[in-house]
Design brief:
The chain has ten helices and 13 strands. By secondary structure, it is an alpha+beta fold. The protein has a domain of about 150 residues: 3-Layer(aba) Sandwich (Peroxisomal Thiolase, Chain A, domain 1), CATH 3.40.47. The chain has a nine-stranded mixed sheet with strand order 5-4-6-7-1-8-13-12-11, sandwiched between helices. The protein has a two-stranded antiparallel ribbon with strand order 2-3. Helix 4 links the parallel strand 4 and strand 5. The longest helix is centred in the first third of the chain and has 25 residues. It is globular and about 60 Å long.
């Protein structure tokens, strides 16, 4: 048995209203048709604002930046230049969220941490994020460290599964999971559909989870880990993918992704609950990774959910956009913090990524 004792979230201070982002990106295109399409995609995204480590487009900043050249024109930064920003900002955000996660976790201190799992797909450096956590919390060098890289939006689930397995094997284990994604550094100044859609949804954020086998302390709000399941929708293997180019990551994000997920999700959910005492009807709320508004619409329709059951996902999308692996932890944190969440209430979380991978987990709210 494992419990998620605390979920911590963090976003950069800089944010851009979606309407302003639409105007910025459309102004960088020479095609009137593309300008109209950008405005349409952004206005229908279900997003109000997104956070970013990139200050280039703030009116108060001015001057050259990652995406703006010395002469004020649009600049296409190299992958190395983008990764430099990732390293600089990761060294600020990872220590901050690690410290906050432990400081705000009832009954847990830094000295209790036995395992650290870091997750990111938007940048690389070594010694890496795991060592930043060790140094930020002054942990023992004997703490076990793991990094999950380049998996995408579903990567929080392998991290949580790994953490739960550590807790199952060792009742004294306390695991800190940290997800950091700086998607905005991979903005693409291209007019193709995949780039426009990716530019319209992705954002920056970090989230952390603290897990152990110990029951939550009195007065805490936590989750009991119930079960996990995963599957592949191989018909979508070419519809969600990315590789590393000379100018950042080249992202494929087909408009068919939502349709493929919607068509296959009911069968997967049936598999999740096969052999379990739970059924889909027992789920109070659904923490769906808000990869985009169309995905949430398809999930809601396919699983015949009420708007209230998926509300936390829509609110997360509106306030933050798609922060890749960190996003589903934002949704789970929102549900747990909601006063209407009941003790023992079952929450089914899910996220999607390249493959086309579908990961799910069932968690029971614990109001100790």
């Amino acid at each position: 048995m494992a419990f998620i004792h605390h979920l911590e979230t963090l976003v950069p201070e800089i944010s851009y209203p979606q309407e302003a982002a639409s105007e910025i990106l459309s102004s960088r295109s020479a095609s009137d048709r593309t300008k109209r399409y950008i405005r349409k995609v952004y206005s229908e995204s279900g997003i109000d604002k997104r956070h970013s480590v990139v200050p280039d487009f703030l009116q108060s900043e001015g001057g050259p930046g990652l995406f703006i050249g010395e002469d004020g024109s649009a600049k296409e930064p190299t992958t190395g230049e983008r990764n430099d920003v990732y390293v600089r900002e990761a060294k600020k955000l990872i220590p901050e969220i690690a410290r906050k996660a432990v400081a705000n976790c009832p009954g847990v201190e830094s000295a209790d941490i036995t395992h650290v799992i870091t997750v990111s797909c938007t940048g690389f450096f070594n010694p890496g994020p795991d060592l930043l956590v060790i140094d930020a919390l002054d942990l023992s060098p004997k703490v076990q460290r793991y990094h999950l890289g380049f998996m995408g939006c579903y990567a929080a689930f392998p991290a949580l599964k790994m953490a739960a397995q550590f807790c199952d094997l060792d009742e004294s284990a306390t695991v800190l999971v940290v997800c950091l994604e700086l998607c905005s550094i991979h903005l693409q100044n291209k007019d193709d559909l995949d780039s426009i859609v990716a530019n319209s949804v992705f954002a920056d954020g970090a989230a952390a989870a603290v897990l152990s086998a110990r029951p939550p302390v009195k007065g805490a709000r936590a989750y009991e880990v119930n079960q996990f399941a995963c599957n592949l929708a191989r018909e979508g293997i070419e519809d969600m993918a990315w590789d590393i180019g000379d100018h950042g990551f080249n992202i494929v994000l087909s408009k068919y992704v939502a349709r493929i997920i919607g068509a296959g999700i009911k069968g997967l959910i049936e598999e999740v609950f096969s052999g379990s005492e739970l059924t889909a009807d027992d789920i109070g709320r659904w923490a769906v990774h808000p990869g985009g508004r169309a995905i949430l619409d398809k999930i809601e329709t396919s699983l015949e959910l009420t708007p209230e059951q998926i509300q936390a996902s829509r609110e997360t999308l509106a306030a933050y956009g798609n922060m890749s692996s960190a996003t589903v932890l934002f949704v789970l944190a929102s549900i747990l913090a909601n006063d209407s969440t009941k003790d023992g209430e079952a929450v089914c979380a899910m996220a999607f990524g390249p493959g086309l991978t579908i990961e799910t987990g069932v968690f029971n709210a614990v109001l100790a």
